[in-house]
Specification:
This protein has 23 helices and 22 strands. The protein has 749 residues and is α/β, with parallel strands linked by helices. The strands form four sheets. It has an eight-stranded mixed β-sheet. The chain has a seven-stranded mixed β-sheet with strand order 14-15-16-17-18-19-20. A hairpin with a 5-residue loop joins β9 and β10.
């Protein structure tokens, strides 16, 4: 058997992944006793400074009984008695000294409020609960206060942490907040000082990987250090041991990411092959690294693992295919450029499904940008290391290494600026389905395994098929998705005929709802343009998300905006209502067309129509009751969208609906978007009888202070025989129809 170790490792990896999936089937949930406990004890594994707080990562956490003697419980605490982990958020006082901060490795008793992490309730939303659960962190403690701390701690880890903080401070002092923050991320994996616009620029240019400690950094530092020792005529075994010890120390100091550990293991195997004089087999090296890391992580395939291993496998196994398909694409004399382009293309092709699944987009220009950026990384990293060393020992010489750091980082900034000017520099593709991912990688594996049997044209054809799998999206049905935006409203409509519509978008309970709920959802759907954005009225819980997104669009001056709004639609009768001035002023600055809609108007989107039911000439004194009410129709399917309609407004809408029914302008209504989040003043018996919808959808925030949906309202639904779903318990709710039949699906189903 060829490569027996490789085969054994692959089998082990498959078993670990299956076991990990089974183990992660039931995420951790705090019991009533655990969440009501006030005191918790655990061992500090890691700590960070973020957002003027200290994050303590505790392992072996136990919940202490406040009614019993705490000192005895702490005294009897034993490491390993629990497999529960948590994060403690401690407020950082301005004059807090390092000596007063709890130390890594110490056992601490913490007082605070335990809360579970938030699960994803919309497509594209960051799943806090799953993310932290895979890392062995099960809950968070807020308003934390350390009551007791053990005298013993891990002197090595604490010392490395302090060294890391000292290096970070040196980089900020030498290079300033902007460039220092970038180099801190590159050398230390510390993104605390990294400005949001810088991070976004690197991401959209396809070079965000250089802002994290990866195999590239380990290769530069590890091989550079090893070769330097060899040039000093130090024997190979001592050189290897010293280099490996140096890299392990560095990996521990910077946090030991998956990419770092993968490169560290592969470096060790490479050095081992040099010492034993055995040929280095990269396939075996990759499989050994993968099996070790999966064993450590309990079979969890997180995004770091997937990106790191897809990149290295693409570079090793797919690059030769490009040489065969494009043998004369560049002169052989320009070997370095050709190798860089082919390697970059191979890495991109193997990573695209992962990028689309987790980040909902790709940067096609990253192949060329990386070709320019990567060669400079060696100089930048080495200069950064020597900048820190000279500042610590010979500060008057630090300028020698500060100059190349500033020059290269400035050069990177220019590259990002130029790439942003090129159309399509970042493509929002949306999230790939599981079926597409399996099909894509299945074809890719066959291409690599059968590359010697497939002719050149066949390989080119297969590459085109793979691209088609990534790009082509077919959708003919009408889809309406009521998002979970907390206490508020946000509805996305995909007509199936080429139009993207959105109704409202705000919240009073979710901070930055535009950034964390609306924008990620649209990116996950592959939407970069909203053709028509409807606002039913101007309450905060209906507009705050879009106000936030409009402000961001203006801040970046359209440079990095992957989302565009073409038209805004508001009610003609309430266009000057209180609360809308600022929103509309932002829209005008962005040159968004503002359209007026009045009762009886119809918008036709190639077979999907929106009819304005209300408001008309008669208005009430309540802004909620004057909400824009729309009737969405496709063939035999109708859905009534009511904003915050209630009270007297429902009476006027009931009259209008009755009139339309008599004039045969409308048929039955299948789905009602319930008005005003299920308030007791909405959805009267008379209104429900006129609408006569079998399904109601309520948009509200879980455990909101208003008590929505009201018990009286739910009782009226039951009396009228209307089934209902709510975003507070079901997450986002999708309604899909072909015009004859319709289907409902909740995100948390």
């Amino acid at each position: 058997m060829k490569r027996p170790l490789c085969v054994i490792c692959l089998v082990f990896m498959v078993c670990m992944v299956c076991w990990g999936k089974q183990r992660n089937g039931s995420p951790f949930t705090l019991s009533k006793e655990q969440s009501s406990a006030i005191y918790y004890i655990g061992n500090i594994q890691k700590k960070e400074y973020k957002n003027n707080q200290i994050y303590l990562y505790l392992s072996n956490v136990l919940f202490l009984n406040p009614t019993s003697d705490l000192s005895n419980q702490i005294k009897n605490y034993q490491k390993g008695s629990s497999h529960i982990g948590c994060i403690c958020y401690l407020d950082l006082a301005e004059k807090t000294e390092e000596e007063n901060v709890p130390k890594i490795g110490a056992t601490v008793c913490v007082k605070g409020i335990a809360m579970e992490f938030t699960p994803a309730t919309n497509l594209g939303m960051f799943d806090q609960k799953e993310y932290y659960f895979e890392k062995g962190i099960h809950f968070a403690i807020y308003q934390a206060f350390v009551c007791e701390e053990s005298v013993t701690y891990n002197h090595i880890q604490e010392g490395l942490f302090r060294l890391r903080q000292k290096i970070a401070n040196i980089l900020t002092e030498e290079l300033g907040e902007k460039k220092g923050g970038i180099l801190r991320a590159m050398l230390l994996g510390d993104k605390e000082e990294l400005l949001p616009e810088i991070k976004q620029g690197y991401q959209y240019s396809g070079i965000a990987h250089i802002l994290a400690i990866s195999g590239l950094h380990i290769s530069i530092l590890g091989f550079g250090f090893f070769k330097s020792l060899q040039r000093c005529r130090i024997p190979i075994i001592p050189s290897a041991c010293i280099s490996f010890f140096f890299l392990i120390t560095y990996a521990v100091m910077v946090g030991g990411s998956v990419a770092t550990l993968r490169a560290l293991i592969m470096f060790l195997m490479f050095i081992g092959s040099k010492i034993t004089k055995h040929p280095y087999d990269i396939a075996t090296s990759i499989s050994v690294a993968g099996s070790i890391l999966l064993g450590i992580n309990g079979g969890n395939l997180d995004v770091g693992f997937l990106l790191s291993f897809s990149a290295i496998m693409g570079m090793v196994f797919l690059t030769p295919v490009f040489y065969e398909v494009f043998p004369l694409w560049l002169p052989k004399k320009i070997k370095g450029i050709r190798k860089g382009l082919f390697s970059g293309a191979a890495i991109l092709l193997t990573s695209v499904p992962i990028l689309e699944t987790y980040f909902f987009g790709v940067a096609p220009l990253s192949i060329i940008v990386n070709l320019i950026v990567i060669p400079c990384m060696s100089i930048l990293i080495i200069s950064g290391v020597f900048l820190v060393m000279t500042q610590m020992s010979l500060p008057f010489l630090s300028f020698v290494f500060r100059i190349p750091c500033e020059f290269i980082l400035g050069f990177y900034e220019k590259i990002i600026y130029v790439s942003e000017k090129i159309p399509g520099y970042f493509l929002v593709t949306g999230q790939l389905s599981s079926a597409r991912i399996f099909l894509y990688y299945g074809i890719l594996i066959l291409l690599v395994l059968l590359k010697k049997k497939i002719k050149k044209r066949g390989k080119l054809g297969i590459l085109c098929i793979m691209l088609a799998i990534l790009i082509i999206r077919l959708q003919s049905n009408l889809q309406v998705e009521v998002l979970d935006v907390g206490q508020g409203d946000g509805i996305y409509i995909e007509t199936g005929t080429g139009y993207s519509l959105f109704i409202d978008g705000g919240s009073t309970t979710v901070k930055e709802v535009g950034k964390y709920r609306i924008a990620p959802y649209l990116k996950a759907k592959g939407v970069c343009k909203i053709d028509y954005l409807f606002f039913t009225h101007y309450d905060e819980d209906h507009i705050s998300g879009w106000v936030e997104l409009f402000e961001e669009m203006l801040q970046f001056s359209q440079k990095r905006n992957v989302l565009e709004v073409t038209n805004i639609v508001i009610s003609k009768e309430t266009k000057n209502a209180e609360g809308g001035e600022y929103l509309l002023s932002l829209a005008r600055k962005l040159e968004i067309q503002i359209c007026m809609m009045e009762q009886g108007d119809v918008m036709d989107f190639r077979g999907v129509t929106i009819y304005c039911v209300y408001p008309g000439d008669k208005l009430t004194e309540s802004p909620n009751a004057n909400s824009l009410v729309l009737l969405l129709r496709k063939d035999k399917f109708s859905m009534l969208l009511t904003g915050d309609l209630e009270g007297e407004g429902e009476v006027l809408v009931t009259e209008q609906l009755n009139k339309l029914y008599k004039e045969k302008e409308r048929e039955s209504i299948e789905v009602l978007k319930v008005g005003h989040h299920g308030s007791k003043n909405a959805s009267s018996y008379e209104f429900l009888e006129e609408v006569d919808a079998p399904i109601g959808v309520i948009s509200y925030g879980r455990n909101n202070s208003y008590g929505h949906p009201a018990t009286e309202t739910l009782m009226r639904f039951e009396t009228e025989g209307m089934q209902y779903l709510g975003t507070g318990t079901e997450g986002a709710i999708l309604i899909e129809t072909d015009g004859n039949r319709y289907w409902l699906e909740s995100f948390l189903e």
